Amino acid sequence: MKLFSKQTISTLLIFITTISLVISLYYAFQKYLLYKNSEQIITKRESFENANKFLLSLEKERLKSCLYLSSPNQKNLDKLNKQRIKVNTHIKENNKLELTQEIKNLLSIRQDLNTLSSDYRLLIYERFHLNIIAPIILKMEKLNLLQNDKYELAFIKLRENFNMENSFLAFTLTKQNVMTDNDVLFWEKIINLRELPIFDIEETKARISKELDENTIPLFSQIQEFYNMKDFSNMGQKERVELFVSAKKGIYSISFAQWLNKMRPQQTKLRRIQNLYNTHIMNTLKNQSKLHYKNMDRYTIIALLMFIVSGLIFAILNILNKDQVLLKNAVKEIEVDLDENKKREIKEILTHNSSSEIYEFLANEIKEPSRAKDLFLANMSHEIRTPLNGIIGFTKELKETRLSEEQTEIVDIIEESSGNLMHIVNDILDFSKIKAGKIQLENIPFDPIEKFEAAIDTYIAKAREKEIELKICIDPELPTSVLGDPTKIAQILNNLISNAIKFTPKKGYVEIKIETTKKHTDSKIKLQFSVKDSGIGVTSEEKKKIFEAFSQADVSTSRKYGGTGLGLSIASQFIKNMGGTLNLESQIGEGSRFFFSIILEKPQELSMRFKNDLSAYKVGYIPPVHHQSLDKNLKIYVEYQSAKFVTYSQRVLLNLEESELPNLLYIDYKCFDNVEDLDYFLDLPLKIVLIVADNREQELLPIVNKIDKILHKPVNLTRTLKSLEILKEEIKKSPTEVNISNPTFNNASALVAEDNSINQKLIKSILQRLGLNVTVVSNGKEALMLRKKHEYDIIFMDIQMPVMGGIEASKEIISFEKTSAKKHIPIVALTANALTGDKEKYMAEGMDAYLSKPMDLEKLKKVLVDFID
Fold first, then answer.
1. What backbone phi and psi angles, to 5 degrees, belong to 233?
2. For 544-601, what is each residue's pLDDT tens digit?
3. Which of 41, 288, 658, 827 has the fewest CB atoms found within 10 Å of its own CB?
4. A single GO molecular function, which one (predicted)?
5. Is-same-fold flag (618-728; 749-867)?
6. Strands of 768-826, DSSP E
7. Which of 56, 255, 25, 298 minimizes the C-alpha distance to 164?
8. Could you check whether the bond before residue 479 is cis, i.e. omega within 30 degrees of 0?
9. Angle CA(274)–CA(276)–CA(281) in degrees, nearest 5?
């Protein structure tokens, strides 16, 4: 698009939008008039219906008036007065019809009736029909609503005629009077006034385009189903003949009640017809009103949009020239920093006078540094992790050899420093992905208790170094499986716990709580996480910036405790991506509490968590003398198994009768200064679980056979439930568990494909120490060739290698095994890029397992146990 043509195009657009605006406003006004007219008709229709109800009420008053004239007793008077009250109510509802004269006539009738001075024939026809009912029907006709109202009015007139006949017979039959000639003539006059509506569907279809709407045909069809003019006219004819015959004698074969009962089907049909009419007409009117309103809205919105577009185009025209100047100036400013090829490119673009080409050029120049940064970070991840893998791995190997005390201290420093460096690298990579918006959340099933306990346990050693007590309270009612990103949630917990331990002084505490809320459904669950410490705390001012990147409470904090200041920022962003918010409560010198909530989905198939029924058992606990808080979490876990939990002091427990003793006793080793003090309790006839804060196997050797189980702090759900299992065991067992952490794989063979020489030596050393025969190659092609020649028990495959990468080599090996009908050898992926989704990606390519660098020895052992017999 040429720059000089934009103004012309904008002017054309303004002209088009202005015309569209005028047309839209015109049609919107027309639809408004139609809508307003529809609403007025609906109001008239409501008046019509109110008038109809008023007529029906008047007809009933006329009937009750005739009954009262024929038999002026208190019962009939009460019925008449009740009906008058109803009529008065309808009068108030019909104030729009101007019924002043009709109301005067009605009051006059009532006054004469009260004195019993009214002639019943005059009352029925002239005073009620001519002076009140007929004028009201005329006013209903003048409302002029729809063409088919005349049919409805015909039925209203028919009903009024039947009711007028009923009023006449009410007086005659109730009073048992002999009918005079005038009475008979009056009756015949009423019958002759009766006009039955005629319905002809074919005639109706012919008149649709002129008078009626299409919906009227189904209405008339419904009416014809139960309205037959011949049957309708003959209804009650036999009874009328009998009454005519008996008229001269005054002795009638049927009573008025029998007459009404005979005519009731006729009244029911008339009522049903009128209901059909009313429903049809109101629906038609309301649909028309809705349609007009919808069309009015549509054109109004179009007009508003045209107005906004016109305004925007005017604004564009005003800033167009400024934009052109600014754009060219910006290009000239950056031209100084461009190489010769770029300068020639931008000069050529300026000659085209094309703004889109200029914007594209600027966008590419802006994206170039970002792409370079992403590439640099990706390469840095791999290049730093590779030597770190060697440092961490060989440090662990070195710790397995005999070292002097000084050498051990140096190795510990190297291990901690390399671990800190790895943590920093991970933080920087996570932060860069957050800034680039490239964080992807997994949605996989995992056991929350198993995952969260494992994440917390990694910080036990660090807490023990500072004599910090870790308190863990994980809700035992958590489901066995939830859907989410377990790695990210564990990383959030790691950051918060690491932060808490770092800023908590010696002999403090860190309390981790993970609970469910009651606000969960069958498909979702809300989890609340909290990490509380007794650390240094932060001020109100420091709270405002603590979640910012590269931020700690103050500069002195960073110098004293170390760290990048990225941990809380990363945790906050992860939580935000999961739909939650990281919050902080803190007091200077008292500590801090970080907490957040996230909602996770539940799998469709969810099994119940295993639960022992220990309701028949009593569990006791002796807490530390000056530290009574641990029993709160222990109590929750014990009572989850339905056992009774009781806290004892040492003196109270020793004074109990044998029958009052608990079945199992938890003793916190903090209660005692030395092992000998425990002897009083170890001889009691109950099972003992000793709670210890760290590894004290040597110290406890003298009494180890008297203890049923040792429970290591921090006390969590899994360890507590395992300790309770001894209640169900018959034989007292030693607390020393079989050590399966050092398996050996003698005579097993492994093929390792790794291009880095340091990593080659490290992996070979670790595997050989575990008893494996190891063959090492430098790329995937060499691994493929050896696989074709030899059999191995397991293959370790680096992903990024020269000549042939790990993924391609794995595919070739699997293809070879299939075509040669060879047994499949498990392939384990090795990579220094520990990114979300790597495991799933490599497994999808056919690999059997995944290990990230630096290699975790326990995970390596687990892989070997899984795949090697």
1. -75, -30
2. 777 775 555 444 444 444 455 677 888 888 899 899 999 999 888 888 999 999 999 9
3. 658
4. phosphorelay sensor kinase activity
5. yes
6. 773-777, 794-798
7. 56
8. no
9. 95
Tracing tokens 């499949």 back to the chain, one arrives at 824
CA dist., res. 842 & res. 806, Å (int): 10
Distances (CA, A) of 838 to 14, 759, 780, 833, 859: 54, 20, 19, 8, 16
Pairwise pLDDT comparison (132 vs 544), residue with the higher score: 132
- C-alpha angle 359/364/365, rounded to 5°? 95
Tokens of 22: 């005028």
Alpha helices in 235-354 (DSSP H): 237-246, 256-335, 340-352
* 414 within 8 A of 387, measured Cβ to Cβ: no
Give residue limits of the domains in the chain. Answer: 45-295, 355-433, 439-601, 618-728, 749-867
Confidence of residue 817 (pLDDT cuts 50, 70, 90): very high
- The values of phi and psi at residue 56, to 5°, are -60, -40
Residue type, 544: K
Q: Which residues contact 607 (CB under 8 A, 6 or more apart)?
A: 480, 481
Under a CB-based contact definition with an 8 Å cutoff, are residues 722 and 712 in contact?
no
Mean pLDDT score of the chain, rounded to an integer?
79
What are the backbone dihedrals phi and psi of residue 116, each rounded to the nearest 5 degrees, phi first?
60, 35
Topology of the domain comprising 618-728? Rossmann fold (3.40.50)
Per the listing, tokens 């699997």 go with 814
Q: How would residue 539 be classed by pLDDT, with cut points 50, 70 and 90? A: confident
Is the preceding omega at residue 714 within 30 degrees of 0, hence cis?
Answer: yes
Rounded to an integer, what distance in angstroms lies between the CA atom of residue 522 and that of residue 515?
Answer: 17
Positions of E strands within 705-754: 709-712, 749-753
Number of CB atoms found within 10 A of residue 367's CB? 10
- Is CATH 3.40.50.720 what the domain over 749-867 is classified as, yes or no? no
553 backbone dihedrals φ, ψ, rounded to 5°: -50, -45
CA angle 474, 478, 469 (to 5 degrees): 5
Strand order in the sheet with 644-647: 644-647, 618-622, 664-668, 687-692, 709-712
Q: How far apart are CA 774 and CA 764, in angstroms?
A: 6
Give buried/exposed letters for 212-249 (b at 16+ CB in 10 A, else e): beeebeebbeebeeebeeeebeebbeebeeebeebbee
CATH, domain 355-433, list 3.40.1190.20, 1.20.1260.10, 1.10.287.130, 1.20.1050.10 = 1.10.287.130
> In this structure, how many other beta carbons lie within 10 angstroms of the beta carbon of residue 747?
9
String of DSSP letters for 97-162: G--HHHHHHHHHHHHHHHTT---HHIIIIIIIIIIIIHHHHHHHHHT---TTHHHHHHHHHHHHHH
Higher pLDDT, 275 or 82: 82
Task: Look at residue 517 and tell me whether its pLDDT is greater than 50.
Answer: yes
| Token reading at 573 | 């962003």
In whole angstroms, what is the distance from residue 179 CA to residue 242 CA? 13
Determine whether domain 439-601 maps to CATH 3.30.565.10. Answer: yes
